[in-house]
Amino acid sequence: MHTNRIETLAANLRGRNICAAAVLPSAGLFYLTGMATYLSERPLLFVFTAAGGVLAVCPAFEAERVRRDSGVHNLFTYTDEESAGAGFERLARHIGEINLLAMEFQAARVLEYKLLENSCGVKQLTDLRPILSLQRMRKEPAEINKLQQAAQMADAAMAVVEQNLALGITEVQIAEAAENFVKARGGRMSFVSIIAGERTALPHASTSTRPLRAGDAVVADLGCLVDGYTSDITRTFLLGDASAELLQIGAVVFEANRLAREAVGVDVEAGHIDAVARSCISLAGYGEFFTHRTGHGLGLEVHEEPYIVGGSLEKLQVGHTFTIEPGIYLPGIGGVRIEDDVCVTATGALSLTTYPRAVKVVKLLCSTD
Amino acid sequence: MHTNRIETLAANLRGRNICAAAVLPSAGLFYLTGMATYLSERPLLFVFTAAGGVLAVCPAFEAERVRRDSGVHNLFTYTDEESAGAGFERLARHIGEINLLAMEFQAARVLEYKLLENSCGVKQLTDLRPILSLQRMRKEPAEINKLQQAAQMADAAMAVVEQNLALGITEVQIAEAAENFVKARGGRMSFVSIIAGERTALPHASTSTRPLRAGDAVVADLGCLVDGYTSDITRTFLLGDASAELLQIGAVVFEANRLAREAVGVDVEAGHIDAVARSCISLAGYGEFFTHRTGHGLGLEVHEEPYIVGGSLEKLQVGHTFTIEPGIYLPGIGGVRIEDDVCVTATGALSLTTYPRAVKVVKLLCSTD
Question: Across the interface, do A105 and B109 touch by the CB < 8 Å criterion?
């Protein structure tokens, strides 16, 4: 249980006249209690009251684990025979009506919302996400330390990707080589790695069993997890005879990445960072092929606040950590993306990922060499 | 896109005066469209109308993937700059107001529900889960075939677990051996394997780096995934000098598993199967230590309908597939669970998992032997 974080949340709830926040298994729950668990068909829900109390509804057979992993002892349990409603009724008898409730809209299920509505007579629901992300965005030094370790692991995994590039090797084999490397060092991947040759015109292309071929632009996008904190890096490699156009967009994306990182600073608006990357790509004539935002926050989730997106007025602060990942995707030709993880410091941006960024032309070897 | 399944759903909606069902990335979505995707902070939502139409709201840069993977072409997109609300407004202009909407309470997020409420003026929300699970529970022959393949893979992985049991080897190492075996055969695990020695008094104990010791009751619970369909098997091994009490509960659980499987038949109530297993364990004096339901449905999800739980009046039908997994957990001593996957046939139950069920006393070898 992170007492300081829970106290800050309670103060934030009081300041908004919110009675309580209900939190399901999620990054937010881990942030507040240290409990890493998963959603199942059996509801497990923590209630953080404006007065600073913490209670939970959980399946009876999970009570011991919940106590041990979260440090919360005020539990309202239900058995499989009773179904979850019984646990929520017990909670309601203890805390009474909840007038204004906060839940994270993007992490909360309708299931638990309806159970709370029925048991605690919730009158109004507000989104907890903007409140909690205010806290979560400003990383503490210990959190930055873990993010840096995760980034270093990703740098090392990217080196494994580059070493494995060869004619005939499949995308999946390269992803596995990187994953095995990370695993052997006690880490794990934070999302399914993308190693995409042919179809890189899709930003979220998935890794296939297609063997690499000369002329491919291989977009490699991977991340590692250290103590719950994630990294996220993308590099692009051109195999063998790279076309002039791929070389050209590689240079443009490299420049957009550099300019955006250099634009980061305290009180700079997130939307400005997006505009810097976007205008660099637009000026080169590829604006319509940069089809996503410039970046996303990084922490306990691979995508979290602050989002580096056009129009965002979010002012960056020391400790904010996010990606800078401009890309250009030319249908039928291929794509290039260069992604780094940066942390805002008093003097600018510290890039946690440091693997060489330039799009590299890789000489071709057969995978059996 | 599974046209037959979508037509059946539409008929079920019409029969209940429901205007439309909204489905997020989930097993339900895979069941209906064949699209396997994940929840992200960017809403992706499919709407199945009572008239049989299918539409979707999705991020603009994902449109190509959504079309390709789901076969749905009627898309309402939004860009990162606009935010998701814009896509939902476009959907609303096309389909108008939704009076009575169905969403799966346990798979739907408050985020998308609120977006639909605001854009389409939803008046009433009902749970899609019981409607869709009526369809999903009765497995088609092709689905049973995949479940059987997944079960055979789990049987083989359990053999790897048994072969690896030795003094000093850690729980994690055994789990990895099973996982590598499955991976080498093109499969993957459907959930994080549980290999638990000391703390088996917790039914959902997690796998640790603790080395196995003489006297441990090792509960091994794992499952494999084949084309989206899952298996789930548990066996228990006693290492070296097994205590008389562990041998005793092993025999009781074995009998409870056998009796419950034999009780399965068409039109038998799920609650009856639970009662059969529970009374066997209670008669032996261990009733209070069987702390969970007897089983859960199995298919595209590791836990789904029908639940084999006390009081359930759900009548089993041909094609229903679920686990039978009685267990006894003695605090400070250890636990035993024996879990099989069974499919209801016209004449009883076919056990898809077949690995020897009896709790086996394993002779002790050092892991370096």
Answer: yes
